[in-house]
Amino acid sequence: MSPEPTTPVASVTFTAFDFETTGLYPATDRIVEFGAVRFCGPAIIASFERLANPGIPITPDAAAVSGIADADVATEPPVELVLPEFVSFLGDTVLLAHNAPFDLGFLRAAVESLGHGKVENPVVDTQALAIKAFPRRKSYGLQNLAAELRLPASRAHRALDDAMLCMRLFLRCVEELSFMGDLELSEVLTEVR
Length: 193
Fold this sequence. Notes:
Layout: E1 13-21, E2 31-40, E3 43-51, H1 60-66, H2 70-73, H3 79-90, E4 94-97, H4 100-113, E5 123-125, H5 126-133, H6 142-148, H7 159-177
Parallel strand pairs: 1-4, 4-5
Antiparallel strand pairs: 1-2, 2-3
Helix pairs in contact: 5-7
């Protein structure tokens, strides 16, 4: 069961997640890499990282961004086998993603195409939260914010690494926005369509 909106953020279990995909469009493209980290406060509880065979070619542009090519996923399990394990990992936690409509769009499309119902977890978009916490930045891209805020980063555009960076950005935003006391969950949630 999802936490109440008045629950202090420090007491909520979140799952930051990120996907690498075959392209930009959830209606026609597929997930090739799943990455997620479950945490409460600064404590990491568990992580999830899997490559998946999308069953369609990875576009050259997507391969150039992630470094994942068709040959890298040719022998991996299909998305249909990885997705249920990923959804189980998410459980009823509050989800975090940077530019959440993108990743949530892929998650919803994959879940619905396999007849697994709907994703109804509460969501925090760290991009929207960063705009509140750090106004007037040149860019709100994840890698740019990480550099500006001196957040430890590793391999950009790999799912687990970006999920970890999303978690670090979230914690930094919460720290910045907590100047008047502890934040409640309702203060960080994002309505994502």
